Amino acid sequence: MTEADVTHDAFLGGLLYLLQPRSGYRAGLDAVLLSACVKAKKGQSVLELGCGAGAAILCLGTRVPGLTLVGVERNAGYAALARRNGGELLEVVQADLTELPIELRQRQFDHVLANPPFYDRSASVASDDVAREAARGAETALKDWVKVAAKRLAPKGQMHLIHLAQYLPDILAALPSGIGSVEVLPLAARAGRDPDRVILRARKNGRAAFKLHAPLVLHQGERHETDRPDYTPAVNEVLKSGAALRF
Hints:
single chain, alpha/beta, Rossmann fold, nine-stranded mixed β-sheet, 8 helices, 11 strands, 26% helix, 28% strand, globular
């Protein structure tokens, strides 16, 4: 990508700036909320599957300094942007998550996060933009995302996924044995509306009972009535100051 093909975008209220494609898939709210849910501590290791230009994992690295950050990205253009965005803070591996290099398959991580493509293309229309389609259209099976994420977890490590609420049963069914302490945070656009997304957290060797949290409401009011953002205070703190999001 040339400089004319990218934009320089602020995240976390300007605490982080990222290069993103001017057209194609561009990270937004989902990536920031996913990163805000990860309970990482200085000195721990984090792997993101399908890191794109690095938005989620670098938001996490901005909030929690001192992490070892590794991103896997299949698309060469996005992998190059992630390397530029992360510099020495982010190790980027260009690979398909189902064909990880042996060096990475020999490593384990305290946290693994992923924002898998949402849309089953057997039941929806593909995008004409190749990069956007790769990020939004589900080519790799959801069960493979879950399986690979689970395999890369260190003992007591945590997995975080964000996805459409309608696919929560598929995610739960794909969790392998040995992954427990499952928590689900539904995301509702406005109060009184059904959640359309969920964030799932699970732990390797976890034994706590399944927990379904009250929905996180993203926007204030019944409808969007002005040109200004109308995020709820909790979400605004995440977006503007890099706050953690408590389950």
